[in-house]
Amino acid sequence: MGVHDIASIVRVHIQLLGFHSLTGRNDLCQILKEDPLKLFSLASKSKSNKGIGVDVYQNPSKHQEKATFLLRLGYAKNSDDMSKALKQFRGRGDQLQERFDCLVRAGLESDVVTNMIKQAPSVLNQTKDVLEKKIDYLRSYLGYPLDSVVVFPSYLCYDMDRIHLRFSMYVWLRNKGAAKPRLSLSTILACSDSRFMKYFVAIQPQGPTMWETLKKNLTLKLSWIFSAVTFHKCFMLGAEMLLFGIWRLLFS
Fold first, then answer.
1. Can you state the angle between helices 60-73 and 93-105, rounded to 10 degrees?
2. ∠ Cα 46 49 51 (to 5°)
3. I need a surface site. Which of 26, 47, 162, 252 has the fewest CB within 10 A?
């Protein structure tokens, strides 16, 4: 192996120079002499470990907060499950605790919430406001008991557009007598789009028309929300400019 080949390998896999099993230049040279292909094995190991614990160095306090929260949930310290959970959960430890407490205040037992989170970790990646909104929608609009999310915690992970659109279609079918009184959340939300179209839209002659109407109404609703937000921003900007103009008149 020539000097240029060695230089190329080291340049591409520079992390090899800091690999824990290499104590110095002599070790690296020895590996190159005995088994050059071993370098690729070392590089592979290094890449597989890359990213593990990055947060620890970038923000150790944030990492510690999350780890403390996970310990309270029953994760074993320094376990593989703990490492996976640290990557899955987004947010600071206090934010994760706030979301957890939100579910408890809604009426669920702490151990039940813990099991839900282990089944569907993404539940805790929802903000507190979003969790409250989805639970209220479940109870008030859909008329489902809170225990429904215990059986299917992933309900809390779906976006509100999908939840609203699919359940609006289901409620319409139910009122037409074309659907069972209370299907499970997973039956309505977890199926693919094609399956939903087959069993919840095309099942009734007027279904496709109603489905398009619901989608159109949702689009109009989103457009209205966007317009309202834009108007609010423009209004606030105009108010700031007006106040700045008054300030200049008074103090210039």
1. 30
2. 120
3. 252
Question: In Å, how far from its chain's centre is CA 206?
Answer: 36
Q: Which distant-in-sequence residues (6+ apart) come within 8 Å of 52 by Cβ? A: 83
Q: What is the largest CA-CA distance in the chain?
A: 83
- Residues sharing a CB contact under 8 Å with residue 161, sequence separation 6 or more, in sequence order: 218, 222
User: With the C-alpha atoms ordered 178, 181, 184, 186, is the resulting torsion angle positive or negative?
Assistant: positive
Q: Residues 115, 120, 122, 123: is their CA dihedral positive or negative?
A: negative
**Angle at the Cα of 133 (from 224 to 146), degrees rounded to 5?**
145
Highest-confidence segment of 81-90, 163-172, 214-223: 163-172
Give this prediction's pTM. 0.64
Query: Phi and psi of 184, rounded to 5°?
Result: -70, 155
For the stretch 4-23, pLDDT in tens is: 555 555 555 544 454 444 44
Residue 41: its pLDDT value, please? 54
Backbone angles phi and psi of 197, in degrees to 5: -60, -40
- Both tokens of 62, joined, read 């944030």
Task: Return the ∠ at Cα 150 (arms to 148 and 155), rounded to 5°.
Answer: 65
Of residues 36 and 205, which shows the higher confidence score? 205
Pair of tokens at residue 250: 């008074």
Residues 6+ positions from 123 with CB-CB distance below 8 Å: 99, 103, 116, 117, 131, 153, 154, 156, 157
Q: What is the dihedral of CA 103, 108, 114, 118, to 10 degrees?
A: -80
CA atoms of 144 and 3, how far apart (whole Å): 70
